[in-house]
Amino acid sequence: MKIKAAEAIVKCFEIENTDVIFGYPGGAVLPLYEALRNSNIKHVLVRQEQSAAHMASGYGRALNKTGVCIATSGPGATNLITGIATAYMDSIPLVVITGQVSSNSIGRDMFQEADIIGATESFTKNSYLVKDANELPRVIKEAFYIASTGRKGPVLIDIPRDVQEKTIDFIYPQEINIRGYKPTFIGNPRQVKRAADMINKSHKPVICIGGGVRSGNAMEELELFVEKCKIPVVCSLMGIDSFDNDSPYFAGLIGSHGYPFANKMINESDLLIVIGARFADRTTFMMEKSNHRQNIIHIDIDPAEIGKNFETRIPVVGDAKETLNSLLEYSYKLDTADWLKDVQTRRKNYLKKLFAKKASLNPKLLINKISSFMENGSIWVADVGVNQIWAAHSFIAGKNKKFLTSGGLGTMGYSLPSSIGAKLAAPRKKVVASMGDGGFQMLMSDLATAKEYSAGVKFIIFNNKKLGMVRELQKNAYNENSFFGIDLGFNPNFMKLADAYGIKGMKIADDSEADHAIQEIFKDNEPFILECIVDPDIPSVPHMGGENYE
Ligand SMILES: Cc1ncc(C[n+]2csc(CCOP(=O)(O)OP(=O)(O)O)c2C)c(N)n1
User: Fold this and answer.
1) Looking at ligand 1, which residue's alpha carbon is closest to its atom 4?
2) Which of 155, 361, 375, 512 has its CA 20 to 30 A from that of 170?
3) CA atoms within 13 A on the CB side of 119
4) SS3 for 90-158, per residue?
């Protein structure tokens, strides 16, 4: 079948089950937009290209599939960069399409020319500059495959405008054969056996999970494994929603901003079983490198991550689901009853303290209350700042609520657009996005997208009139007289802003108003802005300062 290359691109998306594309047009993608106009794929017009990448990320994460975004050449492409890097750091599968100047003009500093492949090389999983239109079907099939297999991530395809206009004979390849790309799915049986033996010899083991468990669809296998071995579970920021938070085996978040007791637990343990986590600095921050009692088994799909930060006794390269299935074939006889009881007592005591009345409005109590109103399959999207840590500590993911955030890159502004993407993916589920007044203002122009597409996200702005997290860092690194560049000296009136966007809003400043606010925000399925006035001294975690709040 002979068709225009731009139409072929759209056909490839249809075959890959892409139903929504987030984008922003321009001259270099005109042929592609003309083909999209004639297709059944929904195009969501964002208000800034960075949002297109974040929305595709939220959409994909909500459905556990690959998100797709498009931008034009030059400034359109460069505006995508932060979104691409954010997805890369958190192993989120994206296919990113950028328009490029005509192929015979590349390298001549043409109008709106940017070397987007070069600019994103270190944070894309793969990228293609397509100069031969006949290559497009193969390239697009490969891009979806690479983005969504092994350690997932963004793949960029840069397509010159003249290439989009060519006519090609359209055949979608049946098979994939990429030289040098063969992810290992099944853990080496000998390593798995060694791991099972080590588990059986341990007295105080802990399982540490990351985002790889959810993205690898291994939650059920993890639950079976935990119940079989009777081992408590801690998690990284990306792993919060990978395990039932109400389970008696669940302890909580570890790391620089983790639950203090959970950090203590990993230092007391004699074995750490790390599953689907990079085990990077933010997660291992409180670990004693000199803990010679401790063995580490590290299971990850990406061999480059194993042993990167901590010496690993037993590396197992493999997919979380397959490897857990292999581990489940062994029998386990561990006596962890006292260890588990201890963990549960500590968790109960910590949460009690966390939600106690300490300020006019305790953001952690509010987040926890809202999360208890959210059903299975609902989604919380946390931004970056002290507000991220409040959400990470207080949102109880239960068995199947999702918690999305920018864990690796820590990108302020992520939550507003990615929550819109998530809501468009799950229109009947509750989607809540929490953020600081700084993060909100980074990409607030996409409130228009929420309104236009009736994406009923409940936006919660924690207004402390400061860049709270940096303020906390300055205080801890120097002293209280060292605050600099962190006052948001002027904020718009957020309620008037909500009104300008045709979005309902409400402002609260005390815990006593929380129940009424929750009733109001969930009254309908429309977007809502809840502004919460909070004290700037409320710390991220108690030991980070804010003596009145310990
Ligand atoms: C795009 C981006 N720029 C800068 C930072 C550094 N940074 C981390 S947290 C933070 C302050 C966030 O302030 P706000 O959004 O008001 O949230 P709060 O910490 O007050 O909850 C800053 C500037 C970042 N993470 N991302």
Assistant:
1) 412
2) 155
3) 17
4) CCCCEEEEEEECCHHHCCCCCCCCCCHHHHHHHHCCEEEECCCHHHHHHHHHHHHHHHHCCCCCEEEEE
Q: Is 357 exposed, middle or buried (0-12, 13-18, 19+ CB in 10 A)?
A: exposed
The single-letter code of the amino acid at 49 is E
For residue 356, the model assigns a pLDDT of: 84
**pLDDT range class, residue 290, cuts 50, 70, 90:** low
Q: Ligand 1 centre from 504 Cα, in Å? A: 26
Question: 3-class DSSP state for residue 210?
Answer: coil
Starting at the edge strand found earlier in the chain, the sheet holding 379-382 runs 402-405, 379-382, 431-436, 458-463, 528-533, 504-508
Ligand 1 centroid to residue 190 C-alpha, Å: 45
* Closest of 417, 373, 383, 424 to residue 403, by C-alpha: 383
**Which residue's C-alpha comes closest to atom 11 of ligand 1?**
467
Q: Give residue 127 CA to ligand 1 midpoint distance, Å.
A: 30
Q: Please report where in the chains the tokens 């070069």 appear, as a residue.
A: 118
Per-residue pLDDT at 550: 55
- What residues form DSSP beta bridges with 94? 67, 154
Q: Give the pocket of ligand 1 (CB within 6 Å).
A: 384-387, 410-413, 436-439, 462, 464, 466-470
Closest to 100 (Cα-Cα) out of 8, 26, 14, 210: 26
Atom of ligand 1 nearest to the CA of 413: 1
- pLDDT single digits (tens) 444-456: 999 999 999 999 9
State the CB neighbour count (10 A cutoff) for residue 321: 19
- What's phi and psi for 475, nearest 5 deg? -65, -45
